């Protein structure tokens, strides 16, 4: 009990000190070998969103909490008051792996290492591709929790690594939103204090099924509306009672597409994973060219970009190039 208490306070200390580095958002989204840069700032400013970015802008890095009020807020859809659309759409092949890299507000690495990473998709039904209030159209394609050593998926983010997610091969062709959801649990021993960091990316899926039949019967939820304040995965009073060991964390929300259980299980530890690099990544345009063999450093300089921004984008794209195997629940 004593060690659990010490662990509790040490992690709370890390949580508070992590605040000084600012919370974060998506820095790089990678699909089909192409790296797309996210927003450069948190202000809803057209100049801060790269013209070839599929990541929708948000206005603040502050988290959405798991209070009943916040969970009922429209901010749960795609993050805090996101832009209605992004300038570009990323091409994604069904069955392929996409990855996303997070940064903190000062262009540093992600500051939290306790909690899951969950990914949803929504099939667009309108030109704006924004779900209507109460529309149950989000289906879960991935959830990553702890490995067999009790290490959370967010630890990889703190190590400046990207999170990998496989797009189901059965997803029908068409336009989608990919909803990235990071849940920081360091304060979730208190009701309403889990922290959500949510972002949406516009993608066009190709190479999947034709028609919508493959989604028939798939469990879907609405955001807001998909979570409740007392969900076991959001209010975890015994979070620090396990001495850092694996425990049966219950993911919030529906089951993963094609999976029957929504409970964390052991998966390969970070130390056993072999990193790979997107050495052929290029910065995408709206109609992304095929990746070339150009090095990451030289290929990350965006055309028509001012000299003041190029070094920042260059650094961020290099930061996001590591894409190791994920801590995925299967």
TrEMBL record:
Q: Does the keyword Signal apply?
A: yes
Pfam families in UniProt: AA9
This protein's GO cellular component annotations are: extracellular region
What reaction is this protein's catalytic activity? [(1->4)-beta-D-glucosyl]n+m + reduced acceptor + O2 = 4-dehydro-beta-D-glucosyl-[(1->4)-beta-D-glucosyl]n-1 + [(1->4)-beta-D-glucosyl]m + acceptor + H2O
Q: Where in the cell is it found?
A: Secreted
Tell me the GO BP annotations in alphabetical order. Answer: cellulose catabolic process
Domain Auxiliary Activity family 9 catalytic intervals: 23-240
Annotated segments matching region Disordered: 285-330
Q: Which UniProt keywords apply?
A: Carbohydrate metabolism, Cellulose degradation, Disulfide bond, Polysaccharide degradation, Secreted, Signal
Q: Which GO terms describe its molecular function?
A: cellulase activity; cellulose binding
Residue ranges with Low complexity bias? 285-296
The protein's matches in InterPro entries, at most eight in alphabetical order, are given as: AA9 (IPR049892), AA9_LPMO (IPR005103)
As given in the record, the signal peptide range reads 1-22
Q: Where is the composition biased (Polar residues)?
A: 304-317
Described by its record, this protein's role is as follows: Lytic polysaccharide monooxygenase (LMPO) that depolymerizes crystalline and amorphous polysaccharides via the oxidation of scissile alpha- or beta-(1-4)-glycosidic bonds, yielding C1 and/or C4 oxidation products. Catalysis by LPMOs requires the reduction of the active-site copper from Cu(II) to Cu(I) by a reducing agent and H(2)O(2) or O(2) as a cosubstrate.
**Entry comment, domain topic:** Has a modular structure: an endo-beta-1,4-glucanase catalytic module at the N-terminus, a linker rich in serines and threonines, and a C-terminal carbohydrate-binding module (CBM).
What name has this protein been given in UniProt? AA9 family lytic polysaccharide monooxygenase
